[in-house]
Amino acid sequence: MTLKTMDEQTLRRYLLGDATDVEQEQVELWLMSDPEGYDLLVAAEDDLVDDFLSKRLSTSDVQLFNNYFLVTEERRQKLEFSRSLQSQIHKPPQPLPKPTPDSFWKSVFALMRRPAFGYAMAAVLPLLIAVNAWFMFRVVDLQRGLSSSNARLTEVVRDRDELMKQLTDKQSADEKLQAQLEALEQTISSLKNPASRETLLAFNLMPGVSRSSSNVQRIAITPTTRVAQASLLLLDDQFDSYAVALLDSENRQVWTRDRLLSKPVADGKAVIATVPTGHLPEGDYSFQLTGVTGSGTRENINRYYFRVVH
Amino acid sequence: MTQQRLSAKKRTLLGFALLHNYNSAKFTALHFVGNTQGTFGVSTPMPSPGSDMTPEEFDRLLHWLNPDRDKAGEKYEWIRKRLIKMFVCRGCHVPEELADRTINRVARKLPEVQSTYVGDPAHYFPGFARNIFLEWIKDRPPVLGMPNPPPESEADPRHACLEKCLEQLPREEHDLVLSYYEGEGRDKIEHRKMLADRFGLGINALRIRVCRIRLELQNCVERCRREIDGLKPTRGHQS
Questions:
Q1: Is B65 in the A-facing interface, judged by CB distances under 8 Å?
Q2: Which end of chain B lies in a sparser environment, N or C, as judged by fewer CB atoms within 10 Å?
Q3: Chain A residues lying within 8 Å of B92, measured CB to CB
Q4: How far is CA B19 from CA A168, B15, B16, B22, B137, in A?
Q5: pTM score, two decimals?
Q6: ipTM for the complex shown
């Protein structure tokens, strides 16, 4: 058997002790049959108590409520509890407190004391740690990259300085070469000049001719002759190198040259001595030929006499 | 006085019976020494004259309620709870005592009807309950005209306790129980329909849910009040 919604009034009469015997039997059988019967009966009790407290019961029902319904301690407790609950439910909302200057900080501290804040922080903290660790890692990585870049920059600067030095050296060498080139070109051009074709005067000298001899060789030097080249013929080529000294008529040395080698000529071998004509004014001269061994030993070999005329 | 050890399962089974007799003025049900198997028993039975239940009667009753011992215990509790409510609704201030008397009487009557009874055993109890109530009211008329409850006082500790207990409720239950009582008249009915829709419940299911929350709150407030008053807890029959 189930009790329908319309039978709520029957339930109320049953609770107030105002139901007929038949209704009582029906309700009690329903209570023993319907799985929800007990809970619905308790809910009907709650509604009855609420109606009593809200003064929605008729006068006769109020009388039954006081004299019959409240007969047990359980129901009196229920009434007291319901009275408190209704007060709580119908309590007017508390006016909001006026904000005070420090209400912001109070609300912040209150927020921090709430468990939700703790949970949120517990959730966010690992994330913050992870982000912080990532940033630390990035900073260390960037610092490492910066150090590497600085080292490379230093290396590049050093390379640049070295290249600049090389460039300066090269420019200096180029300038020298340019000067030499200009000198050579000047020499070549002077050699190509017809006026300078007679600058070299070559002649051969034989050893053994004395100064007083009448057949001493005469060398005529013109104004255009710049250099006099004497081939000092050798009777015997036994030395590693030779030294030549130009002596005037009073045997004063006016010019000298060392480490000269013998060279083959038409008459055998000779030592070539090239003397600027500035050293040869008119007069009697002689070349003193000295042989030099590998160990440096020197030995006078011959003397070659000649006479310069202009 | 005989005292024997009980297995956990049997202690549980007997526990429900003994527990509900704990607060009665007299032990009127389920007091016996030993049982048919001789494996367990309870100590110091204090039978009321003519209202004892023997172990055999107890075993027979449980078996009739359900052959499964555990389910029989649950059914026993289910019936007893409703019998108590029934006696409360009839204006009896000793409902547990009359409920136990009813169960005893059914247990004694059982050998005569067990073989022929058809249907839910629970339906058998209300008739016996009515007779028990009539016998009780005949000997001891119910107290009528109870004094009105004391007027509400702001100093009532229930208010503070209720606020505390409401805060302890899960948010959904807290909102539901406060929202359920909003409105008046037609508005209230419509509001409750809307609540039922929102929670996916029927109207009756919503009423039951609120009723249970309210009962939980009431028990919480009573515990709180006892703590404040420093009173020892007293056993009630609410559950």
A1: no
A2: N
A3: 71-72
A4: 114, 6, 5, 5, 26
A5: 0.51
A6: 0.72
